[in-house]
Amino acid sequence: MTMSVQERNSGSGGKEEESEDESEILEESPCGRWQKRKEQVSQGNVPGIESASLAMDTEEGVEVVWNEVLFPERKVFNALEDTIKAMFENLMQVEHPNIVKFHKYWVDMRDNRARVIFITEYMSSGSLKQFLKKTKKNHKTMNVKTCDVCTMW
Predict the structure, then answer these.
(1) Is the Cβ–Cβ distance between 37 and 52 less than 8 Å?
(2) Which SS3 state, helix, strand or coil, does residue 118 take?
(3) For domain 5-122, is the CATH number 3.30.1240.10?
(4) Among 7, 117, 124, 134, which residue has the least CB neighbours within 10 Å?
(5) Are the beta carbons of 75 and 63 closer than 8 angstroms?
């Protein structure tokens, strides 16, 4: 069940039990820093990402996103391995206030399948499109109110 942060924090009764269930740790990173939780994060149809879950950064004490890309066959991954690793190494170097931070990635090989897991910053305000839409509305409202105040003088 996908639940927004607002839904998660509001109300009472069954929500608290649901929230406890969603905070259950499903998996831990090899270094032990990141802990995957049950709660799914909506990524807005990002191609290639099989799943995105909320996770906890145990060093920083903040929520992050645990993303997974699955390769159905190991040989497909092996053919692209160098390119994939180079791409993630480059993404981890990007430092910009308007770009989601890539923290770490690793590869998990099980059952003749490859799974690339990467940890990204969690943007609680939703997608960039949603954020810009909200701030644009707030900016217009602010300008109208400012003009109203100016005309009162």
Answers:
(1) no
(2) strand
(3) no
(4) 124
(5) no
